[in-house]
Design brief:
globular; two-stranded antiparallel ribbon; 133 residues; mainly alpha
Length: 133
């Protein structure tokens, strides 16, 4: 479970771009954030979870990212009508000077699910996804 203070900081953000930057901050422990802390706190800097290319091979990766998703879902519930229509941030991770994603941005979910737009994926109870917390 993520540090409650860090979770509260994420949940207090007013918009999508702010929450995305707060979840990430930077790829290290300093300052702590709920994303990197899960990767580096579980696997260490030299462990599987601390390696971007290898971390999806660790079963803990999915528990960690499931929790990040749950926290994002809690944030959405505070103003669902607005937050189902908010996205932002860079297409290339951490490149805040580059091109940003939009609601029409296409995500390839894989062979079993095909492509979906971010707008489709923001609603976990919509036609593409079917889950709630």
């Amino acid at each position: 479970m993520a540090d409650k203070r860090l979770v509260d900081e994420v949940l207090a953000q007013p918009d999508y771009t702010s929450i995305a930057r707060t979840v990430e901050k930077q790829r290290s422990f300093d300052p702590p954030n709920i994303h990197a802390s899960g990767h580096f706190g579980i696997g260490g800097i030299l462990g599987t979870m601390g390696n971007a290319a290898e971390s999806p091979g660790d079963p803990l990766f999915y528990l960690h990212h499931g929790n990040i998703d749950r926290i994002f879902w809690e944030w959405q519930q505070k103003d669902l009508e607005t937050r189902l229509n908010q996205v932002g941030g860079p297409i290339t991770p951490f490149d805040y000077s580059g091109k940003n994603v939009t609601l029409d941005f296409t995500i390839n979910i894989g062979l079993l699910a095909g492509n979906a737009t971010l707008k489709d994926l923001l609603n976990t109870e919509g036609g593409t996804l079917c889950y709630t917390y």
